[in-house]
Design goal:
The complex is a heterodimer of chains A (332) and B (290). Chain A is an alpha+beta fold. Chain A contains nine helices and 18 strands. In chain A, strands 6-7-8-3-9-10 form a six-stranded mixed β-sheet, with helices on both faces. Chain B starts with a helix and ends in a 6-residue tail after the last helix. The chains are: A alpha+beta (332), B mainly alpha (290). The A-B interface holds A 50-52, 72-73, 77-79, 81-83, 85-90, 98-99, 102-103, 146, 150 and B 182, 184-185, 187-194, 198, 202-203, 206-207, 209, 290.
């Protein structure tokens, strides 16, 4: 119903190559998230799948059929844009019904489907309003509604939550996950926020400069990052990366330890350092510790930890939780 | 910080300008109203007497008035249709990424900077002239008898000339509006299965509605007073075929020296213009509120 296969896909805008050469499989019903830093080609990749950009070379199959040269409307995909791209002069009802109208459905059928979608998305009271009279979250839901009614083979989302405030973002994240559970349709979701990627994805695709760095489930990426880039990108706060003498002692060009895998003690441990900043979150306390000969290290301790900047502290990385990387940044 | 004092001061400061503008408008209007009630002919100075509404009656019952009224409506209406329609087409074309875009845009806008008298003369002598004109030459080359534009289809000729002048204005306004059309909206519509025709009808046209309204309102104001083009080409003729209300007022005042009648005609023109304005604001002005 919604398997997407990319084979040797390449995309260049005139001279600049944005996506060098990329293979990727997205299984039917999967929630796949493209994540990566700004400008790495996430949107471009999504637009290639949607058909809004033409591939320079390579092949895109959807449901086993070659769709490389097929018009966007014929690929049976629905897209939700970052700016929502609602039609400003149409009511919510007409916005959601627009793809159905274009498909030539009759009034009664359109009304029925629009009302069903509105019920799922809690939009029923707003059906006669225009987009300008809605809040950001409501507009977002209208955009999703417009995608749902087409019953597409897959949904494509391009940073749909980036215009919302933090609280709403968490809500909408849940709603989209629930929607995925309910519909069971393939979803491809672009974000640069690794928290969104970790919480929503079945499969995360980490992109960097148009190349896939690693593909895997959130836990795989968290516990076995394939390289330094993924290690630094996935997980919050960031993994501590240490090179130099300390790494050499472990037989690697660089080692990485996540803040949550460091034990903190006042009187004994592997590294002795001085606390520079203390961040109290209530549930956790983050200590930024300057360790001579290593670097500044971020360590997490659960609950409250009564320590002040300037005080000495001992840190011990948990055995078996240390990631080791070679000179090219690959995991050892 | 608009305190009571600053507001009072602001009013005081603005007063001279407001008064000047008011005088500028009210005195001519008052004089026109006053003259329109007099029997006032420049050939018979010193014989002015109050005649009430006689001038109005005279102006309105003149058979030329109704012809002029019709001509005005036909002319303004046709030019609006041509400039808005043509403006949308040109704007769509100019919005495409084409080679030499800057030069093409400049050339499209150029007619707007030509004085009405000059452009009318160019059309009259270089294009529409039955012997020397380009159109006549084209017709002869194709084996047809050239038509004498200004005497056979005079109103159409005027409409063509004035449309040519106003097309750039419409194009320019519509082009800027077109450029602010959201690209993601277009793409969303494309994915929703809307073809180019549907996208134009359901997205582009509604998006342009405000700009179209502006074009119609502004052009109507100026088109109601088109004068130079008529004067230098047809002189209102043949017969009354291209006489508009504005031109009729001119004929009354300066060819027949009837200041009273012309003033009455002017007042009627003001009233008609206001009726048109009210009608326009009512029917399309709501596009501006959004
Ligand atoms: N139409 C275009 N012409 C030329 N270069 C482009 C075009 N679109 C994108 N690019 C380039 O391709 C690269 C990838 O762009 P893309 O929009 O896919 O990034 P992104 O990963 O979505 O970033 P962001 O998180 O900021 O949205 C960028 O370097 C960008 O400059
Ligand atoms: Mg992007």
């Amino acid at each position: 119903m919604g398997k997407i296969e990319l084979r040797a896909v390449r995309k260049a805008f005139e001279a600049t190559e944005v996506i060098p050469d990329l293979d990727l499989d997205i299984e039917d019903g999967e929630f796949a998230v493209f994540v990566g830093p700004s400008g790495c080609g996430k949107s471009t990749l999504l637009r290639l799948i949607a058909g809004l950009e033409d591939v320079t070379s390579g092949r895109i199959d959807i449901d086993g059929r070659d769709m490389t040269r097929v018009a966007p409307a014929k690929r049976k995909l629905a897209m939700v844009f970052q700016s929502y791209a609602l039609y400003p002069h149409m009511t919510v009802r007409r916005n959601i019904g627009f793809p159905l109208k274009m498909a030539g459905l009759d009034r009664a059928a359109i009304d029925r489907k629009v009302e069903d979608a509105a019920r799922i998305l809690n939009l029923t009271p707003y059906l006669e309003r225009r987009p300008g009279e809605l809040s950001g979250g409501q507009r977002q839901r209208v955009a999703i509604g417009r995608a749902i009614v087409r019953e597409p083979a897959a949904f494509l989302f391009d940073e749909p939550l980036s215009n919302l405030d933090a609280a709403l973002r968490v809500n909408m994240r849940l709603e989209i996950s629930e929607l995925h559970q309910k519909l069971g349709t393939t979803m491809v979701y672009v974000t640069h926020d690794q928290v969104e990627a970790m919480t929503m994805a079945d499969k995360i695709v980490v992109l960097n400069a148009g190349r896939i760095e690693q593909v895997g489930s959130p836990i795989e990426l968290y516990s076995r990052p394939a390289n330094r880039f993924v290690a630094a990108f996935i997980g919050s706060p960031k993994m501590n990366l240490i090179d130099g003498r300390e790494a050499e002692r472990q037989g690697a060009a660089a080692i990485g330890v996540r803040p949550e895998h460091i034990r903190v003690s006042r009187d004994e441990g592997a590294w002795k350092g001085t606390v520079t900043v203390v961040e109290h979150l209530g549930s956790d306390t983050f200590l930024h510790v300057d360790v001579p000969g290593v670097t500044s290290i971020n360590a997490r301790t659960p609950g409250e930890y009564g320590i002040k900047p300037g005080e000495p502290v001992w840190l011990t990385p948990e055995e078996g939780r240390i990631h080791r990387f070679d000179r090219e940044g690959r995991a050892l | 910080m608009a305190t009571a004092q600053t507001r009072a001061a602001a009013r005081l400061m603005a007063a001279p300008a407001v008064l000047l503008l008011l005088a500028w408008m009210v005195i001519p209007l008052g004089m026109t109203l006053y003259f329109s009630t007099l029997r006032y002919n420049l050939l018979m100075p010193g014989m002015e007497v109050f005649v009430g509404f006689e001038n109005y009656e005279f102006f309105v019952t003149d058979p030329a008035f109704w012809i002029a009224f019709q001509n005005t409506l036909v002319m303004v209406g046709s030019i609006l249709v041509i400039t808005v329609g043509g403006g949308i087409l040109l704007a769509l074309l100019l919005d495409q990424p084409i080679w030499g875009q800057g030069v093409v845009r400049l050339m499209v806008i150029a007619p707007f900077f030509v004085m009405p008298v000059v452009s009318a003369l160019v059309w009259k002598n270089l294009l529409m002239h039955p012997v020397n004109g380009l159109f006549a030459w084209l017709a002869r080359s194709a084996g047809f008898t050239p038509i004498d534009w200004l005497s056979q289809v005079p109103l159409l000729s005027i409409i063509m000339i004035v449309s040519w002048q106003w097309l750039p204005f419409a194009t320019l306004i519509l082009l800027t509006a077109l450029q602010s059309l959201d690209r993601e909206q277009q793409e969303a519509a494309e994915m929703d299965g809307a073809g180019p025709g549907s996208r134009f009808w359901y997205l582009t046209l509604p998006h342009l509605s405000r700009a179209i309204t502006v074009v119609i309102l502004i052009q109507t104001i100026f088109l109601l007073s088109v004068f130079a083009e008529i004067l230098v080409t047809t002189g209102g003729g043949p017969g009354n075929a291209t006489t508009t209300i504005t031109y009729l007022v001119y004929v009354q005042a300066l060819l027949q020296f009837d200041v009273g009648g012309a003033s009455a005609g002017g007042v009627i023109a003001i009233i008609l213009a206001n009726i048109v304005a009210i009608f326009l604001i009512r029917s399309i002005g709501r596009n501006l509120d959004r």
